Amino acid sequence: MDLSGKTAIVTGSARGIGRAIALRLARAGADIAINGSQASEALEQTAEEIRALGRKTIAVVADVSSAEDVSRLVDSVVREWGRLDILVNNAGVTRDGLVMRMSDEDWDAVLDTDLKSAFMCSRAALRPMLKARAGRIINIASVIGLMGNPGQANYAAAKAGILGLTRSLAKEVGSRGITVNALAPGYILTRMTDALDEKQREAIKSRIPLNEFGTPDDVAEAAAFLASDEARYITGQVLAVDGGMSLG
Asked: Which residues are identified as catalytic?
């Protein structure tokens, strides 16, 4: 999978899945704009690792739930490199709680960051992509958007919305050479799974046919494939990277 000469934006790429995707795309030859909602040591560390791979990078601090910040993010890439080939909508937050106790603020925070940001980033990225008549948009959904989960109605709704956005946008822009696909990770080894105790880990593993958690690199490999020319005839699809968990 050769991405030489390509440029990419990966939102929420300071750590976890976003970081792994940014590094994998860089290893494939792409120049990467990384993003976080605030300046951090983790964001700069990701940038340093990309440079160590011999690729160019810019770190753009932007709140992707803000239309103004999204425009600045995309404009920064086009101004820096003159093109935008790949957009990975990865930024997300959780504000878990039962529906009867969930505040409007917690609902809105998750929908704005996990769903509305993907819409706004895609809309902004389409301007240079449509001019080039080529592009790849990859939305990071979740197995929770396929299955639902108690205590995560806001997160499940946002990630299910990502699936509808992916399929609709794929139909809108396919004739211009732009593909739009989604990845639906299952339980991936991140800070969230680090907080689980052994009993919780074993209970979750019992629901996964492969009987293990995934890694950020598992998701990153799938993203690199969807970003590549090898996936040129794939659009509007949802690929679950979940060890079979969504099979039920």
From this structure: 155
